[in-house]
């Protein structure tokens, strides 16, 4: 648990250990049973080592945000993001359900042929501003300016940046659908995350959000490149906020919201549409409020 990121990525072992790191704590109950069966006080004392290690590494991330979240300001922005799963035909359904949840900005990933247009048609009355690049798109109640596609070394574009100009303040928004990651096949994803980190670091904008399907967990060594620059808020009700797979139960958090210069008052997962990913929904105080 403590040194998983230092294990060489030989035959995909590093990737597997990185993503399994939080689940290693499940070994503690089994070790406890063995310690009790052995009737050894020394075993019980030694058992404190993995318990303490897990709490030090993952404990801060499972503390409920609601315990320390700043007070909601006079002007806020609610952003929702989801990988809608290509081929389900559910992009518009996801968008409408996220709109009903009170979203001001909706970011979608894994858009397939025709789905972006269906989303725009479904949302046009309330979300007249949108920008779509390849398989990613953003729909907003507020004007979007300085919108740009991002290649991030992939050879085709599945990321974007835009400025969300609300009446009470603006922020820079990055939306990404990182390349897939599998053992011995995650070079493209690693490069996209590396280049995203470089772009974000060079961006002088003080108020920023980066959202989407990063195809990386918070403990993935490739994700550290971007999470060392931007902050990921805890979940409202605590725990690690796993988003995939939606059924039978989430086991990994591949979908993230990262911020800089913004106060996060709420951060949670919500169900929307037929996707195999849960959506992430975050509320921030607009700058200057």
TrEMBL record:
Coiled coil: none annotated. Pfam families: Exo_endo_phos. Residues 98-277 form the Endonuclease/exonuclease/phosphatase domain. Keywords: Membrane, Transmembrane, Transmembrane helix. The chain crosses the membrane at residues 20-37, 44-67. It comes from the Bacteria. This is Vancomycin resistance protein VanJ.
